[in-house]
UniProtKB/TrEMBL annotation, chains A, B:
Its EC number is 3.2.1.52. GO terms for biological process: carbohydrate metabolic process; glycosaminoglycan metabolic process. InterPro entries: Beta_hexosaminidase_sua/sub, GH, Glyco_hydro_20_cat, Hex-like_dom2, HEX_eukaryotic_N. One of its GO terms (cellular component) is membrane. Transmembrane segments: none annotated. This is Beta-hexosaminidase. It catalyses: Hydrolysis of terminal non-reducing N-acetyl-D-hexosamine residues in N-acetyl-beta-D-hexosaminides. The active site is at E291. Residues 12-127 form the Beta-hexosaminidase eukaryotic type N-terminal domain.
Length: 536, 536
């Protein structure tokens, strides 16, 4: 296969919903460039911070050296937002935007919400490219006219802080990477059998006894209340939801270290939901619900219950009710839906409420597709993680999910009505923590999660059109060069994404070796802009 | 499977040739501990530096807090070396040592060579363990009596600086990791079609025009003569050979950027071998020889040659002769051996000299085993890389080499005499650079290369004995806990090895979460002890 010049295609990942572009190259002057807020746009903390942040991101290589060309120069971009509310991004909030960059360098970004403006700023920042040989910034293929919105409302990754504790900067880095991919959900699988690392004002003993901190005898290894608030706030500023998962009842043996009486008291659960539900403002809380094990049996004994299935179904129903009292909708792994659904079908009690979200994680075979179809047909909502487990490779088995499987994935089971399809919310890449600590986190999630971002944001028809040879594979000449550029962007912005295979790029292209032109002071740029890449 | 306590087995990786141990725990006092040189041991720069270095490595957590126990305390270790020559470690040099730590804390390390002493110091450093909860150092399972030597003489990894340039600290980190694994060979695949990054006094244009530095327009991206000397010296101090590979004639199109007349002049090659052969003191130079392509056809046209096979065979024979003039033995990929061997068998000229080393890289099937058998039966030597390509996973195909394949690998083809078997020198894990830059290098090579270290150092009978269920797999209770500890050691020493699957470890064990008790100032500890982990 002939090599592909990454500059031959547009630089955007994901591909926008609709766009046209030309062939002109504009210069961008880092010293003069400014965002201007349209007069009708009300102030917003989130928007102001984003304008300053994206200016830093675009011009990370400093002031450059002004070239002596007569090219048209981009010196400002006008931003207008219809509704400046910026409390917290919630599932289904409008993320659309329009971005125009005219041939005369007139630049206008408009959006209905601050969240849409964030997505548009990311797109603009991907259009502005630094040339290390010229030491200057340029915006190629102008004029641009982009009208953009996502195909799916929920686009996320899951990280697991129970099997390996991840430092706060490592979590913030993933939020950065989500924003750089126009994704919007961090699913924080916080607790599991292995550890309960979440500090709590009402129940401090849970983490004091259940975290790695207590096991190792060090002060790190648990998330203070302030740590948790920092993660939520950092995500809010970037239009990312943080969906907290406290895995119940199957994976909760770490809780029992502090509270052997745990499952006997609904009051305890109510208080826990109240505290964490307030700290994590997302409407959705995740309560696990998979792989029910011995800890439930212990609870059954205390309750005098005899049928495991009935106890579990009872537990899930009460959990949904308890969450609803605190204004929360419940996401669980699909096990919970399946078991309650089966009980209902046999006349044993009501189904889960329609606000329930089932996360599919089994095989995406006929049974898996049928399960998701049943969820949305019954009025529930579904998120797919089947096939998007990114922890494989290098250990027993050796099989890793590859990007081709991600871009070619079918997301909606066949045979649904449009209304039912709309309840397939999207997908999540899951990175379980047994084989991934924070030193290996970035490489395992990215670049593959960026491909999931394309699959979830870009219309399926667009992807089908550039996949001339179906399914999309190693010979694809649209997505692949953009993956190469995107990987460079991620690394240059401090995300240690895995390199894409350089075999497809011309020899000695700057895109083959982007580690050689990282921004100044790169090693001191952590996720938060101040800390080291690794916090230790 | 029940969890395994990593402290239940000995902490050494690789397993020594012969050892006995007890059940006593000695305290080790970081403030008082000193190495003493036996009176008959002559001074050696390599040995002195190693004693200081291993003192730093063992006591990386600082002075600790002295416990108020009556346990016996290790305060010194006597080191004796019969022959203190330390010019450079060469293939086949003696690496044996004896280490005794008595129950009364009498510690004696003796070796024939400084290289053996280095291996023994590594073993001692693995016996001394830091406990983060006690904040103190201990040596468990004393008394120890270890008599050790490697099963194979060549134990290495290959890195590729042609597809991605790797910074000097990244190379030094790999040398560290080799020493920590009692491995002894860094095969430096320096040039390829993609780039020629090696600075040269005689031919500076090769790198000036063929490196990424020229392509990207930055000053990084090539190895100065001083860089190359620093790598060689760093490796010498750790008893590691650096086998330089200049890939000829198949993968040399990057050379032609500077010297289109390259292949027409043997004088050029002689000068190149003279310069690089002097800078890299290892007796072996590697000249590629695989995947012959169009550049050779161009040379054929100039030479008026018509049969590709004859030209190639002629080239390889002359290369061996040219290298011999400079005192060098030639390693190539097995292609060269196969083709010259075939020509010889058909009466077209002599075979390669007996000093030739063939590196097997094809499938380890019947044909692959037969090829290696033919190499050693004809008097040549062989190194196996078949099955040890560590670049797989995450990209097209998705299949990664797993540790079980490494530990269960057959290294010597069946049916050889003992004398023939002795010419199977060992093995090399290869990490090709298309999908691995220096941000992903450590994780891709380690931990799996540590398992290769065990396979190459430890007698096969020992491995067979602890693999009760053959082949060795996920249920192995000897190697797996040592992999867990070894991964912690590597991370704590600055190598970003991939985590081993924590499913096998008890919940909240300190070995599950060793990132929480890294040494102080860890983020500032690079390969050289001063630079950042990443040099940028």
């Amino acid at each position: 296969m002939a090599p592909i010049d990454p500059d031959a295609v547009h630089p955007l990942l994901p591909t926008p919903y609709r766009f046209t572009n030309g062939t002109a190259t504009l210069r961008v002057d880092p010293g003069r460039f400014a965002f201007t807020l349209a007069a009708a746009t009300a102030p917003s903390e989130v928007l102001s911070a984003a304008l300053a942040r994206y200016r830093r991101i675009m011009f990370a290589w400093g002031s450059g050296s002004s070239p002596a060309t007569a090219a048209t120069t981009l010196t400002d971009c006008s931003v207008s937002v219809a509704n400046s509310s910026d409390g917290s991004f919630q599932l289904g909030d409008d993320e659309s935007y329009s971005l125009r960059v005219a041939a005369d360098a007139d630049c206008r970004l408009s959006a209905r919400t601050v969240w849409g403006a964030l997505r548009g700023l990311e797109t603009l920042s991907q259009l502005v490219e630094y040339s290390p040989s010229d030491r200057w910034y340029e915006l190629r293929k102008a004029p641009w006219q982009i009208d953009d919105k996502p195909a799916f409302v929920s686009r996320g990754v899951m990280v697991d802080t129970a099997r390996h504790w991840l430092s706060v900067p490592a979590l913030l880095r993933q939020i950065d990477a989500l924003a750089y991919s126009r994704m919007n959900t961090l699913h924080w699988h916080a607790s599991d059998e292995d550890a309960f690392p979440m500090g709590s004002t009402a129940f401090p003993a849970l983490a004091a006894r259940g975290s790695y901190a207590s096991a190792v005898g060090v002060s790190a290894g648990l998330y203070s209340v302030a740590d948790q608030e920092a993660v939520v706030q950092y995500a809010r500023m970037r239009g990312v939801r943080v969906v907290l998962e406290l895995d119940l009842p199957g994976h909760a043996s770490s809780w029992a270290l502090a509270r052997p009486d745990l499952f006997a008291t609904w009051r305890f659960l109510g208080q826990l939901i109240a505290e964490f539900g307030a700290r994590f403002p997302d409407r959705v809380m995740h309560f696990g619900g998979d792989e029910v094990d011995a800890s439930v049996r212990a609870w059954m004994r205390e309750q005098g219950a005899t049928d495991l299935r009935d106890v579990y179904v009872h537990f899930e129903r009460r959990l949904h009710a308890a969450a609803a009292e605190h204004g929360k909708e419940v996401q669980t792994w699909a096990d919970a839906f399946r078991r309650v659904h089966n009980a209902s079908a046999h006349g044993r009690g009501p189904p889960l409420p329609r606000t329930a979200i089932a996360q599919e994680w089994g095989r995406w075979d006929e049974a898996g597709r049928a399960e998701m179809a049943a969820v949305v047909r019954s009025g529930g909502r579904a998120v797919r993680s089947s096939g998007f487990y990114f922890d494989g490779g290098y250990s027993t088995g050796g099989r890793a999910t590859v990007w081709e499987e991600v871009i070619n994935a079918q997301l909606v089971p066949p045979g649904l009505s449009a209304e039912e399809e709309s309840r397939v919310l999207g997908a999540e890449a899951c990175l379980w923590g047994e084989v991934a600590d924070e030193l290996f986190l970035d490489q395992k999630l990215w670049l593959r999660a960026s491909v999931l971002a394309e699959r979830l944001w870009t219309p399926h028809a667009t992807i089908a059109a550039y996949c001339h040879h179906k399914p999309c594979s190693f010979d694809n000449r649209d997505l692949q060069p953009r993956m190469v550029k995107n990987r460079c962007r991620l690394v240059q912005r401090g995300i240690l994404a895995q390199p894409y295979n350089t075999q497809i790029i011309p020899d000695r292209s700057r895109w083959q070796q982007c580690e050689l032109w990282l921004p100044q002071n790169w090693s001191r740029r952590g996720a938060a802009g101040t800390a080291a890449v690794y916090m230790y």
